[in-house]
Amino acid sequence: MQPRxxxxxxxxxxxxxxxxxxxYVQTSGLERRxxxxxKLRASQxxxxxxxxxxxxxxxxxxxxxxxxxxxxxxxxxxxxxDPKERALLGWxxxxxxxxxxxxxxxxxxxxxxxxxxxxxxKITVAIGTINTWNRLAVGFRTPHPVDQxxxxx
Length: 153
What we know:
Elements: H1 7-10, H2 12-26, H3 32-45, H4 49-61, H5 66-70, H6 83-96, H7 98-101, H8 105-112, H9 117-139
Helix pairs in contact: 2-9, 3-4, 3-6, 3-9, 6-8, 6-9
């Protein structure tokens, strides 16, 4: 995969605006596990290898269980996620795929059962922010770093 352009250099003012949104998400008061869930699931849906790689590593670093991380792409078939996480995963999918889903009432009502209006607003901004990052990384073909393979014992 050949990178198309370096979006960090192409328009610093545009990147700064996205970074301001990211800073808001990181300091919004949302639980870290919810931020990880939002970022990882949206990145999986959008096929963003750069962001999936980053958010898997960040999730591990913050102590989230391997099974919780590994089964996210098949969350509907897994009992690993609690009802609050499941409602959030449904909303992440609905908003990330909004042109197909129309953000259905059922997904919103499930979310509303677990989160306040303020939290729902913050969650939705977080979903929009990671979708922006995904579009930059996928659109400009940003390669993810390749880790050194572990040595055999």
